[in-house]
Amino acid sequence: MSPDLLAAAAAIDRLPRETIHGSVVGLGGLSVTLEGFGSLAAIGDRVRLEAPNGASALAEIAAFRHGRAEAIAMGPLAGLSDGVRAVLAPRPALAVSDDWLGRVLDPMGAPMDGQAPPASGACPRLTHTAAPPAGLRARLGPRMALGVRALDLFTPVRQGQRLGLFAASGVGKSTLMAMLAGGVEADVIVFALVGERGRELREFIEDDLGPDRLARSVVICATSDAAAPLRREAAYAAMAVAEHFRDEGRQVLLLMDSVTRFALALREIGLAVREPPATRGFPPSVFTELPRLLERAGPGPEGCSGAITGLFTVLVEGDDHDEPVADAVRGILDGHVVLDRRIAEAGRYPPVDVLRSLSRTAPAVLDPHERPLVAEARRLLSTYGEVKDLVRLGAYRVGHDPQADEAVRLAPAIEAVLAQGKAEPSDPGQAFGALAAALAA
Q1: Are residues 173 and 352 in contact, defined by beta-carbon separation less than 8 angstroms?
Q2: CA-to-CA distance for 353 and 357, rounded, in angstroms?
């Protein structure tokens, strides 16, 4: 290239970048009303609010009304006032690279672990994208060992499957997630901690994960005090990170805790822009966004050897497993695992209620010699559930019902197989061997 062209290119680079800006004409709660953008702004665009006193905040455009844009603040609005400048910012994108492995980041890709920012990849990836076309997606892969006997036996999973973990608060979701992080054979683990308690982040990373698991993981976290758009963005950012590694041909395990807090963040945003509440206070957009997020997990396009196996926790309010979010998520995913408080109170961990749990891929996963074992165990546990109150009261009499007698005799041995310590390794072969031994007792 000639010296004149090089000089011209350098001069062009020194020119100030063109900016599109408007102004704030209303502030209230999470909502920011903007004008001056005309048709140059769109839903999902971000704006930086810049006050003369140096205060600033980021907001995301969520609605348009009467020629004005309505945005939702992504941080505190303290120090801002009517009339401050609003500059249109780029749409959210993450330049993911292998340098992100072993890191704890916020939804914007900024470090939360006190280290330097991770190196950026060559191709930034938008966090809000569509799932691969349904007709062109690869099929699910082979069985994936989860390392948890209750799940490997009763809710087996294939590579690329999406499974929900349904439980009330304090029942043991975090412990089960830690067991899954250590037991699943995956190339990369992506954690999405949505609305997590701030004090629990280091405990989870240092006590539950440990340095070995963290080295092959990316943790995306938005704590409970983060603004609703950031909590929502944590789920989208984690999904974008998982898609990056999937498209490289790797097997990715995505653990999201929790989908319910993602839905609550969507509800805050919807209500802030005056969307009418519908089902139990949730605006209709919540039930539009849930499948858009969850459908992105799974196998990649045909020809891609990678897949995202997604495990999503759902916090059921008041142990009501039919509340709107739980009901919607259960219909989208490929199976569900129910954690029961009564089982946890009885001292059996993980407290998986195997009779209420289901994997839609189980018929294609279980071998012919495994299916009768699972069916027999379910029958015995179901029969025992019908008579266990009589057994506890001492009112049950042996000899009146041979099937009940068999269930009373064998159910404790099956429950012993399902009990497992957090640091106790397992695999499907060991699990089925233990179940066969329990049934033969």
Answers
A1: no
A2: 6
Q: With beta carbons less than 8 A apart as the criterion, state whether 431 and 417 touch.
A: yes
**Residues sharing a CB contact under 8 Å with residue 116, sequence separation 6 or more, in sequence order:** none
Give the tens place of pLDDT for each residue, 375-426. Answer: 999 999 999 999 988 888 888 888 888 999 999 999 999 999 999 998 888 9
| Contact status, residue 428 vs residue 143, Cβ threshold 8 Å | yes
Question: With contact defined as beta carbons under 8 Å apart, do 323 and 317 qualify?
Answer: yes
Sorted by sequence, the CB contacts under 8 Å of residue 271 that are 6+ apart come out as: 277, 283
Going from the C-alpha of 270 to that of each of 86, 173, 196, 299, 327, the distances in angstroms are: 22, 28, 21, 31, 20
Name the packing angle between helices 428-439 and 402-418 (round to 10°): 150
Q: Report how far residue 201's alpha carbon sits from residue 196's, in angstroms, rounded to the nearest whole number.
A: 7
pTM of the predicted structure, to 2 decimals: 0.91
Cis before 81? omega within 30: no
Residues in CB range of 304: below 8 A, 6 or more apart:
138, 246, 247, 249
Cα 30 to Cα 198, 221, 223, 290, distances in angstroms: 21, 21, 17, 22
Q: Which residues contact 253 (CB under 8 A, 6 or more apart)?
A: 180, 181, 184, 186, 188, 189, 190, 308, 309, 311
Length of the chain: 441
In tens, the pLDDT along 365-377 reads 999 999 999 999 9
- Its sign, for the CA torsion 30, 111, 161, 173, is negative
The model's pLDDT over 50-75, given as tens digits with 9 standing for 90+, comes to 888 888 889 999 999 988 999 999 98
Cβ neighbours for 229, distance < 8 A, ≥ 6 positions apart: 59, 60, 72, 73, 74, 265, 269
Using alpha carbons, select from 218, 25, 192, 152 the residue that is nearest to residue 417.
152
**Which tokens go with 50?**
């810049």
